[in-house]
Amino acid sequence: MAHVMGTLPVTRGAAAAAYNLSSSSNKALHVGRPTPRRNSKAYRVQRQRAEVQRISCIASPPERRPKTSSRSEKSTFGTDEPLRLNIGDGPGAGYTAVDPESRRVVPTAAERKGKTVVKMVYVVLEAQYQASLTAAVRNINAHNKTVAVEVVGYLLEELRDAANFNALKEDVASANIFVGSLIFIEELADKIVEAVTPARDNMDAILVFPSMPAVMRLNKLGSFAMEQLGQGKSIIKDFMRSQRKNNENFEESLLQLVRTLPKVLKYLPMEKAQDARHFIESLQYWQGGNPQNLENLILSTCSNYVPALKGVKFDVAEPELFPEVGIWHPLAPGMYEDLKEYLNWYDTRSDVKFEKDAPVIGLVLQRSHLVTGDEGHYSGVVSNLESKGAKVICVFAGGLDFSAPVRKFFYDPLGSGKAFVNTVISLTGFALVGGPARQDAPKAIEALTKLNVPYLVSLPLVFQTTEEWLDSELGVHPVQVALQVALPELDGALEPIVFAGRDSNTGKSHSLPDRIDSLADRAINWASLTKKKNAEKKLAVTVFSFPPDKGNVGTAAYLNVFGSIYRVLTELRADGYDVGDIPEKEEDLIKSVLNDETARFNSADLNVAYKMDVAEYQRLCPYAEALEENWGKPPGNLNSNGQQLLVYGRQFGNVFIGVQPTFGYEGDPMRLLFSRSASPHHGFAAFYTFLEHVFKADAVLHFGTHGSLEFMPGKQVGMSGVCYPDSLIGSIPNFYYYAANNPSEATIAKRRSYANTISYLTPPAENAGLYKGLKELKELVASYQTLREGGRGPAICSTIISTARQCNMEKDCALPPDETDTKEMELDTRDKIVGKVYQKLMEIESRLLPCGLHVVGSPPSAAEAVATLVSIAEIDRPENEPPTRGMPGILAAAAGRRIEELYANSNKGLLADVELLEEIKMASRAAVGAFVEDRTDKDGRVSKNALANFVRLGGFTKEPYMKALEGTKFSKANLNDMRLLFTYLEFCLEQIVKDNELGALKQGLDGGYVQPGPGGDPIRNPKVLPTGKNIHALDPQSIPTTAAVASASVVVERLLKRQKQDNGGKWPETIAVVLWGTDNIKTYGESLAQVMCMVGIKPVSDALGRVNKLEVIPLEELGRPRIDVVVNCSGVFRDLFVNQMNLLDRAVKMAAEQDEPDDMNFVRKHAREQAEERGVTLREAASRIFSNASGSYSSNVNLAVENSSWSDEQQLQEMYLARKSFAFNSDRPGAGGEANREGFESAMKTVDATFQNLDSSEISLTDVSHYFDSDPTKLVSGLRTDGKMPSSYIADTTTANAQVRTLSETVRLDARTKLLNPKWYEGMLASGYEGVREIQKRLTNTMGWSATSGTVDNWIYDDANSTFIEDEEMQKRLMEANPNSFRKLVASFLEANGRGYWETSEENLERLRQLYTDVEDKIEGVV
User: Fold this and answer.
1) How far is it, in rounded angstroms, from Cα 377 to Cα 18?
2) 1306 vs 488, 749, 1313, CA distance in Å?
3) What pLDDT, in 10s, does the model give residues 1105-1130?
4) CA dihedral of residues 442, 443, 444, 450 (deg, nearest 10)
């Protein structure tokens, strides 16, 4: 621990202010006002606002400080009501209420007298230049005898507001000088061009520093213009050419040009050389950033380019240059360019002393904040870290490649090559390499991997003031999330904590003491992982139980949780961790957490690890009182014995395995309806209080997808200290095993619970296969194909029809009536019937499904990877280098056919083409199987046989995949295409069988850097593999991609064709669409593009590849009407893709505003009708993009169904309407979701069809509850005036042959391939306890579909009952493995009947009732 010696010396003004912030009192701010209860949530919010108010006063000059009676204080303090921002009414309003006039400096009459007045307008991304420019201008006006300057500045995001944009145009029209910098958002760059171009010829000088090319071309200095740089020679011409081709790293390239240009100016004519030199010099002044440099920039530009001042000699100094990279400290005498020199100064300081083994925290800073004097927020972080006993090394870069100072200054100065720092925090908010334009993640990952310490990226507020952020439910501004949260995550960044605010008067950044305190504690705790011995480290393993039931302890998607924990503990023990006496088998580990073996049947309680007295809880949990508003006084009745709070779990040495409490309101219908603002209950808070303050965990490991912590109320991104995920996790480093195929929810965990997410693999996929009657049916089809033209053909066809009916396929295949005589049919008619049955059988048989549950650290064998490789091989990959063709296309070409034609004919049921497609599938499996066998050694491991490869490449023998095709009609497959494909498959095979799931965890627990990697579907994107990576999503501004738009158009075409076919040839007027976060990450925005395609709008990329522009597709090109939409976005989609939601809203409103006939534009038709009906404008009536309120997730229909806590379907529909009717409005983009139930219901009344997407074979309709939770089918029927049930469709893009099926067809397919499929349920039962829960979950989710859509056929319940209940041996297996889940399974059958979803005999119901009683008695210990 550091011992601060007396008062820190004041060496720089801003630094001193920041050092004093955290100790100042807030008492004066509350005098004379009613104060909320101490530690209530309102009190906590009020304290934060008070601190912000105080900091703002310190940071502001005296004349700008608010008076005691300011509006801000009146509206903020002494009330429990949250502040409501005036977010404006014009287009683009809602991001910030700061008035650009606060940046205007106008010389007084005395200052103007006898001087030439020059007007300067500037537009910048961030506000750090405001104070420095203001000081420079005021100094000129006060002391220069020749010129006076008027200046006004705009932040880029403010230009979304129409009033601000008009003000900019007016200012530019009368300006002499325009300056712009870091303008990298194209839609706003277009506004700059629009504003400046008309005035360009009349302006004296235009200086645009690194920005979009269109804005850079506005540059004007005498005879110099930016495009003229390309007309010279050497480096200038090369530079401009390279920037036209590639806009990445633009700023770094320009800075390199600045450093080298003086050497080549001699190649330009003298006049141009002089003007070019002035441009480069201007950039150097700008980069220098302090008031002196900026004053010299203004005066130099005036004397050279303002006609009235031409030739006037001002006293202008050369640019003051600062190091490109260096080390800074607020108390140091200057900047350092050598680590040894810095340490010599640092280690001899007299004001502070450190322990010998003090942690060293590396801070990464922006030089622009240092040189402009806007470094107070940095100083606050340094002060806090040092006060907690940590040393700091603050490095900076002048450009946006921060990897250079990381490489130069964060290693042992003695040359050992080891990291000198224990944790790195970037305070820039930017990616490590790159800035607002692009980032170079591979370069960043290379630097961070070598350094190998935790990497945190914290945020200063850029586009909001502190007050606006505190009052925002969204949290951090959506554009800042895209630039400064999503992009750093690609580098492996953790913990986007907001550490600094922005003063609305001066634009200066200031520390947020409570946030910095949290950041410092967490950084030091990450650092301690490198210093503690493994034997001393305490690890809290947290498992989930959802829905709350003893049979559900250890819930996680496709993960054998206790088997995995056992594997982790065994591995940790081998590495020296104290894991105590862990049981010898995983079954015993389960029992020890659930309870002892007898209590497993006679106790509803789990093992109690700790009983926390109420007094201890209130003392250790600082936010305990805030929870009383929702839950009353502690201990409450959840995780409580009525007197104490109970922590469930068991401790093994220094490892605690605990059961995370549930939300607490799952069984309460009214709380489900109104739970938007619910807090965690006392038991939940006590659990995390125990982990941090009693058990004193060094790290927590959340085990599997997913728990409740990250979904607790609070801001979406950039939480404050009163947001519950932040409060709960406290200062504990958080690791989280998350399914690799779920990057969207993993990203929520990363952002809201500060998790280092480590990906795990889902179980190896297998083809579903056929069983029972379906298998018999395939054999009959094979017989028919052989004998179809003979006398037995009609009889076999008749048997096929009757067997298909017995298999409940009549709704899937349009079978003829029983009495139909097949002998009377034409051969073609019989072929079509059999072909359709065959096509449906092949659809079932070939469907991929994960079998069993994954165990962490147990990768699949090569043989188990075959089915996955076959699916990978199906897809054309034009983006590969070199491009690879999918195997179906290669084999179809070898047979003289086009694969697209085969897919289309197979979908129609043409028997010959169904058979050919099946032959292609079998040949693909054979080729991949032979390839894998050739690459596998006798132990089943992948092994490269170098000699065999050499012989084949020499042409001596055939490749195994080509040998597998011998004797088939595909033997002439293109050898080059096959080689390219199998070279790619070899890479994929190696990735599949690799494993770093345990290695990544151990690396993290050692205080190392866990390499990042994308999450998603490993079939679509094999780069997801190998697992054991810190999961990230993608750059949200990059979607939808061009490929996604192309795929989306195919699906929309098939959807509309199917709907017309099912609806008497009529176009659907409105389609209700659900958008999911994970789906759009996996498909790079396909469903996003589908919505735009429906309304006839095309997304367009800007010059940097970011999708933020739209174009109308003319009706002539569209060839159909514009289809209206009602889009409901999941809460996770909303969190990850706020900007895309605004893009969607713009697209719908753009369609509504097209002057087109009603019968060709249903968007406009309905918007006009609803505008008249509701008395609103057309644009307001065209709101179609909805979700939950900010910080809220799901409709809670799923929770009600899972917990049987609903009375009727109307109650479920009311939940949906109440929670999913928050509209997102691109005209007010910073407002987030605004309650608009009237508009939601009005739009829903016109819906003809509902629509969702399935994009992955791993997760289907009944695997998770989210799908039915968002289904509005019965809701629409209740809202429509005619009561008509809408059609419901599911797009299945899990294979190369995308399908659009009805919802009922998809539910049937899901039941046949999973719930009723022996291959699936036996695979689950192999995992015992957890497998039974998975079976029960599928039945409950099936009932959910009955509740929301009514699309579950009775036979599905019948067959499930036959499989799991009527079979006594199966009953026994389920009961023995997990009695609680088996009880829930029996209860679900009874509930399905009681709610009218399943008709069965009274005899069967009586059997179920008796069985339920028997199971209950056994669990309670009665028998």
Assistant:
1) 7
2) 39, 31, 11
3) 778 889 999 999 999 999 999 999 98
4) 100
